[in-house]
């Protein structure tokens, strides 16, 4: 992923429990114009800005209490929307399962490929730019699946990480099941959790092959073997694409949290938003702070210029993201309906929008 030096505009998608808002700004990213709500009164747990084509296509994974989940897309920045035919992503006949939410939308490496992660825990693949999806059946029928649990928010594949140069390799994560990887295009999937602690398990059983409550995983396309992971208690790094993990939580005020994102141009720079698990799942002292490491987790720095000092809400697993400007932007959305933007990799922050419903996901890109 290179710096988009010629990009003059920025798009920010904000998915909430009651619809989607789409913001645009110039490269300074200080003033924003928002439209919305799109998909009013529908839960939007996933969205995507796909800039692989000549013009951006934006996606929203929306769920209606009456009509169920649906993947919608727009080729005109949200002015009009289309949706997958037949009512959205659906399990094959006889599966005895139905999709409740679309938790993740991710672009693949090959042209036209888009992945979706759903609740219940399944991964889907589209080869026509998100217009139709097929089930990754080997993962859905995995022998370990009967022992996967459901996290507090439900059982869902919330992370999908296609390898940046190998279309046959994809890493995924589920709560609660852990990290899995395919290297043969989905024909088989292997657990990749060695070294990740499951603190809720009894002593002597806290490092199982699978069953960890992984909250989010990320990696950088320039160094794809390096992964960063936020767990339910623990922050980790892998330098061998998930074969083994080591803790990098030392220096953080808490090792619980939901999001983890990597700088778009610096593989050693990673951001987290720690929460105290035992104190209502808000930041230490009720102060909103992003923590950044510039040495792959060896040391951490607190960033908070412009963020509120009175903050007693959480930041969800997909409510933190980065854009791909030369001067990287970082974005944080909170459960109080506010989104903060930093145009300088976390050094300073301004409020992009507030008074929205509960924020579940934010996604940004230059175009």
Which structural traits does this protein have?
367 residues, mainly beta, Methylamine Dehydrogenase, Chain H, 4-stranded antiparallel beta sheet, 28 strands, 1% helix, 41% strand, disordered N terminus, BNR/Asp-box repeat-containing protein, WD40/YVTN_repeat-like_dom_sf, Xyloglucanase_GH74
Describe the structure.
The protein has one domain (9-366): Methylamine Dehydrogenase, Chain H. The protein is 1% helix and 41% strand. It contains one helix and 28 strands. The strands form seven sheets. Strands 3-2-1-28 form a four-stranded antiparallel sheet, with no helix packed on it. A four-stranded antiparallel sheet has the order 4-5-6-7, with no helix packed on it. 49% of the residues are buried. One of its GO terms (biological process) is xyloglucan metabolic process. This is BNR/Asp-box repeat-containing protein. It comes from Nocardioides psychrotolerans.
Structure in a nutshell:
InterPro entries: WD40/YVTN_repeat-like_dom_sf, Xyloglucanase_GH74. The chain is about 0% helix and about 40% strand.
Helix content: under 10%
The CATH architecture category equals: 7 Propeller
CATH topology: Methylamine Dehydrogenase, Chain H
Number of domains: 1
How many DSSP helices? 1
Q: Roughly how many Å is the radius of gyration?
A: 19 Å
List the topology elements.
Blueprint (H helix, E strand, L loop, with lengths): L8 E8 L2 E8 L6 E6 L4 E8 L6 E8 L3 E7 L7 E2 L17 E7 L6 E6 L2 E5 L7 E2 L1 H4 L15 E7 L7 E6 L2 E5 L7 E2 L22 E7 L2 E9 L3 E4 L7 E2 L8 E7 L7 E6 L14 E4 L7 E3 L16 E3 L7 E4 L5 E4 L7 E4 L5 E8 L1
Antiparallel strand pairs: 1-2, 1-28, 2-3, 4-5, 5-6, 6-7, 8-9, 9-10, 10-11, 12-13, 13-14, 14-15, 16-17, 17-18, 18-19, 20-21, 21-22, 22-23, 24-25, 25-26, 26-27
């Amino acid at each position: 992923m290179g710096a988009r030096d010629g990009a003059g505009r920025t798009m920010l998608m904000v998915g909430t429990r009651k619809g989607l808002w789409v913001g645009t700004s110039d490269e300074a990213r200080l003033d924003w114009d928002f439209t919305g709500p799109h998909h009013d009164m529908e839960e939007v747990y996933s969205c995507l800005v796909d800039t692989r084509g000549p013009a951006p296509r934006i996606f929203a994974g929306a769920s209606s209490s009456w009509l169920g989940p649906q993947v919608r897309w727009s080729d005109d920045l949200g002015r009009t929307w289309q949706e997958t035919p037949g009512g959205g992503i659906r399990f094959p006949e006889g599966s005895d399962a139905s999709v409740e939410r679309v938790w993740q939308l991710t672009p693949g490496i090959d042209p036209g490929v888009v992945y979706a992660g759903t609740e219940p825990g399944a991964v889907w693949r589209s080869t026509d730019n998100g217009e139709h999806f097929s089930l990754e059946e080997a993962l859905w029928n995995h022998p370990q699946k009967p022992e996967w649990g459901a996290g507090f928010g439900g059982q869902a594949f919330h992370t999908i990480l296609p390898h940046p140069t190998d279309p046959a390799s994809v890493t995924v994560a589920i709560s609660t099941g852990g990290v899995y990887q395919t290297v043969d295009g989905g024909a088989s999937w292997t657990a990749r959790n060695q070294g990740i602690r499951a603190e809720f398990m009894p002593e002597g059983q806290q490092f199982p092959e699978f069953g960890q409550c992984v909250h989010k995983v990320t990696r950088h396309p320039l160094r794809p073997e390096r992964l960063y992971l936020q767990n339910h208690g623990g922050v980790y790094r892998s330098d061998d694409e998930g074969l083994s993990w080591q803790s990098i939580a030392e220096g953080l005020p808490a090792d619980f949290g939901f999001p983890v994102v990597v700088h778009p141009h610096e593989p050693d720079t990673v951001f987290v938003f720690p929460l105290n698990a035992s104190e209502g799942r808000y930041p230490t002292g009720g102060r909103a702070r992003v923590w950044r490491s510039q040495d792959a987790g060896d040391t951490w720095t607190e960033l908070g210029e412009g963020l509120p000092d009175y903050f007693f809400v959480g930041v969800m697993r997909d409510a933190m993201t980065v854009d791909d400007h030369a001067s990287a932007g970082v974005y944080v959305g909170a459960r109080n309906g506010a989104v903060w933007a930093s145009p300088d990799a976390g050094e300073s922050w301004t409020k992009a929008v507030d008074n929205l419903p509960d924020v579940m996901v934010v996604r940004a890109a230059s175009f």
